[in-house]
Amino acid sequence: MGDAYVRAKRLTVEDVDMIVALQKRLDIRFGDAAIRLGLLSETEVREALNTQFNYSSFPTIDATSISKTLDILHAPDGEAAEAIKRLRSELISRLEGEATIVLAILSPTTGEGKSHIAASLAISFAQLNIRTMLIDANFRNPTLHTLFNLSNQTGLSTILAKRSLGSLDAIPEVTKNFWVLGSGPPPPNPVEILSAPRLKSLIETLSRKVKVFIVDTPSSLKWADSQIIAGQTGYALFVARENMSKLDDLKRSKAEMESHGVNVLGIVYNTAPKSTDSVKTKLVNSLKRFLGIFQKSGSRRRESLP
Questions:
Q1: pLDDT tens-place string over residues 145-164
Q2: Taking the chain, what is the end-to-end CA distance rounded to the nearest angstrom?
Q3: Does residue 94 sit in the same domain as residue 29?
């Protein structure tokens, strides 16, 4: 990467030597070292990575009908979007070596912002030109179709019930390399519809062409659905909300998931906005702190939430 910056006359050989020295001393990535030294911005590092790995920009779409709360789409260079991108980078690092990333987004109760995080995270992967699918498996209170202004007459429920096709061509493609599979009409028997290996089999079939699946879920304490879903995704990420999430609830939810063989990667601390006008400030303030809370399973965890 250093050679590319020298050729572009953005860095000198001496700059690269300083960056490499810091990189080795702190055991961090080249780009992170360059940012710490103030020699490169996060945007410059991201653009270099996009070029290095042949990633292209997120294809242009008409986003006017998509929820304005999704800063990752409407303000991709803003602070809130950068926080989501850092979370994405952390996940890519943690799940390096996985042929397909399948991640359930969980929260102990409702209203903690997991649907917004799930949608934002899925868009962020698609922005790297990675074929990504956002799945709404929350049959209790589905919301993803409203964020993207999509019809919900068919979706995951009708596919799992074999009342509609589960092929990639039948799933709405919001833009190139990004699909959103809504929940479909709420079924009378969510637990039975979601029972293994139905969801897992669908994802395995779609994974021939899709490489990242982000799955939204219902409350993990209120409904058994989330355990069934996460048990089929294998990996999970919890979302907690300021002044709402309880540590005991998080511990209990984590223990229940791990007892079902789910690898809980960590927790994202989130603040749900009270109004559209406060979205940016609140999301920035909450997600800028995620690095201290998003932790590896088994590592030392915080004993309280702010």
A1: 999 999 999 999 999 999 99
A2: 39
A3: no
